[in-house]
């Protein structure tokens, strides 16, 4: 089943059941507290909170998402993309828990011939919030699930809130069992490689207050209008239905992986490290393409920095695969062709997107050739001396003189088994900033354009941590 086919079945199923089909919003969220759209519900937040009356009681979408928090997982787990598409069905004070469970079960288990997704009932497991006996009863009634295939989890896993006073509620997640070849028996609690989370149903039913943390708050009462928010990973269902091993091997991603393999002459499946790198390339090229298509351009802060990091990690991964020359002119068209059916704009805008991408690669290759030798030597020297960490001033010099990003230095050092003295690095960065300030003052720059300093201002800050989960996401 092609990804486009799964998407079509989804929209038809919920469309036929009274849901308004809403096109994907941009990856660049309207919500100023969010760097990116991280879930299907993001465009609907005003309706969920009741701030704005919903123009329709039910909606469905296939939403483009970016989760930077998952960047370290990419290529290593089977199921995390930095870009992915979340299929959602939403109810704004209309249907609730029982209907949401019924719809999910029906779509998953209806045969492919009858327009469903054709999962075998015996392969599906669910988790529920530990106190949610109501949901357990409904799963038993609707799906006839035996007790052992319904697992109870705590607030950490199966409770949704924004971390703020307001709407909140329990979740129930649906998992696919890949069978004994993939790990231990016993459900998602035992093994998340064998049991793949495909769909999360959120039952927004309470108003919470006195919030001390994500797991410590008071339930003030029931919401007058309860909402349903669900998210099914399109790529996850695709990789299961396409009988491949992970989401980097599906029809929308695999062509890039194959190009990386051809360009490097390394066979996919021959070496674990190389496989991870090819999967990283395939994922990051697609994410970068989709971000640029939504208007993001590489820069040193915010969204542009995320894009820049994805592009640079792609270059790095290709180098680790033994390719030093530019590869974007071959990788990006492969991704464009794989994505254009679902998103024709990546083709229409390709001229603009590719110009930016190729220029960024050229610039970074120049940076790398300047910095890598110095870094390699420094790593050698540090190891010879038996020190556990690369000196902060080396990292600073690389950054200052060669424009070598600190996260790359950290990554390269880590590969050699070394840490980086981040404390010393940050101190040097701060000193430099102060010098620059003092300098500007002493020269009485007045209203001169100081934007040239923006680059290191941004890099001195923590610009790449923890803003992927919806709950904690905030503009940095
Ligand atoms: P996981 O535990 O596997 O990281 P999650 O619990 O963080 O997933 P949710 O926030 O519940 O994911 O998102 C709803 C659905 O979106 C998930 O059930 C999954 O199918 C899909 N999904 C989430 N993150 C990713 C990702 N990084 N790449 C692909 N699909 C994803
Ligand atoms: Mg996650
Ligand atoms: Mg999960
Ligand atoms: Mg989940």
Task: Provide a descriptive summary of the structure in words.
This protein has 476 residues and is α/β, with parallel strands linked by helices. Helices cover 43% and strands 18% of the residues. The protein has 16 helices and 11 strands. Strands 1, 2, 3, 4, 5, 6, 7, 8 and 9 form a 9-stranded mixed beta sheet that branches. The protein has a two-stranded parallel sheet with strand order 10-11. Strand 6 (159-161) and strand 7 (166-177) form a beta hairpin. The protein is globular, with a radius of gyration of 24 Å. It starts with a helix and ends in a 17-residue tail after the last helix. Mean pLDDT is 90; it is low at 444-476. Adenosine-5'-triphosphate binds next to strand 3, strand 8, strand 9 and helix 6.
For the largest beta-sheet, the strand count, sense and barrel status come to: 9 strands, mixed
Q: What gyration radius follows from the Cα positions, in whole Å?
A: 24 Å
> Cα distance, first to last residue?
39 Å
**Strand content of the residues, in percent?**
15-25%
Strand and helix order: HEHEEHEHEHEEEEHHHHHHHEHHEHH
Globular, elongated, flat, extended or rod-shaped: what is the shape? globular
Mean pLDDT, rounded to whole units?
90
Structural class by sheet pairing and helices: alpha/beta
Our count of helices gives: 16
Number of strands: 11
The small-molecule ligands in this entry are:
adenosine-5'-triphosphate, magnesium ion
- What is the percent of helical residues? 40-55%
Uncertain regions: pLDDT < 50 for 5+ in a row?
444-476
């Amino acid at each position: 089943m092609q990804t486009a086919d799964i998407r079509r079945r989804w929209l038809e199923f919920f469309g036929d059941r009274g849901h308004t089909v809403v096109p994907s919003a941009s990856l660049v969220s309207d919500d100023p507290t969010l760097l990116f759209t991280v879930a299907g519900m993001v465009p609907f937040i005003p309706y969920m909170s009741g701030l704005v009356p919903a123009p329709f009681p039910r909606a469905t979408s296939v939403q483009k998402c970016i989760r930077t928090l998952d960047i370290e997982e990419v290529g290593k787990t089977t199921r995390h993309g930095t870009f992915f598409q979340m299929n959602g069905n939403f109810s704004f004070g209309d249907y609730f828990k029982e209907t949401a469970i019924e719809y999910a079960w029906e779509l998953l288990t209806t045969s492919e011939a009858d327009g469903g997704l054709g999962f075998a009932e015996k392969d599906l497991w669910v988790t529920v919030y530990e106190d949610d006996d109501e949901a357990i009863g409904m799963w038993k009634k609707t799906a006839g699930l035996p007790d052992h295939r319904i697992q109870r989890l705590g607030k950490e896993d199966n409770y949704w809130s924004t971390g703020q006073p307001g709407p909140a509620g329990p979740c129930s997640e649906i998992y696919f069992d890949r069978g004994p070849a993939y790990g231990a028996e016993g459900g998602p609690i035992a093994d998340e490689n064998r049991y793949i989370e495909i769909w999360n149903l959120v039952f927004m039913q309470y108003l919470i207050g006195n919030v001390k943390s994500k797991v410590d708050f008071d339930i003030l009462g029931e919401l007058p209008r309860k909402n349903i928010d669900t998210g099914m990973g399109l790529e996850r269902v695709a990789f299961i239905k396409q009988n491949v091993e992970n989401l980097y091997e599906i029809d929308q991603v695999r062509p890039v992986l194959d190009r990386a393999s051809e360009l490097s002459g390394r066979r996919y499946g021959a070496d674990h490290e190389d496989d991870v790198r090819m999967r990283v390339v395939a994922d990051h090229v697609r994410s970068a393409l989709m971000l640029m298509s939504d208007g993001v351009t590489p820069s040193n802060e915010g969204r542009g920095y995320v894009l820049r990091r994805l592009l640079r990690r792609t270059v790095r991964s290709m180098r680790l695969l033994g390719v030093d020359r530019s590869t974007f002119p071959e990788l990006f068209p492969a991704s464009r062709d794989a994505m254009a059916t679902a998103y024709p704009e990546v083709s229409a805008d390709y001229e603009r997107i590719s110009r930016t991408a190729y220029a960024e690669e050229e610039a970074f290759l120049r940076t790398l050739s300047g910095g890598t030798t110095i870094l390699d030597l420094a790593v050698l020297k540090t190891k010879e001396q038996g020190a556990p960490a690369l000196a902060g001033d080396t990292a600073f010099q690389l950054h200052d003189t060669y424009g070598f990003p600190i996260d790359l230095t950290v990554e390269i050092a880590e590969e050699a088994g070394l840490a980086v003295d981040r404390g010393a690095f940050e101190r040097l960065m701060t000193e430099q900033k102060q010098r620059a300030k003092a300098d500007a003052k002493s020269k009485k720059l007045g209203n001169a354009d100081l934007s040239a300093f923006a680059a290191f201002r941004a890099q001195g800050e923590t610009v790449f941590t923890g803003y992927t989960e919806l709950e904690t996401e905030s503009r940095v």
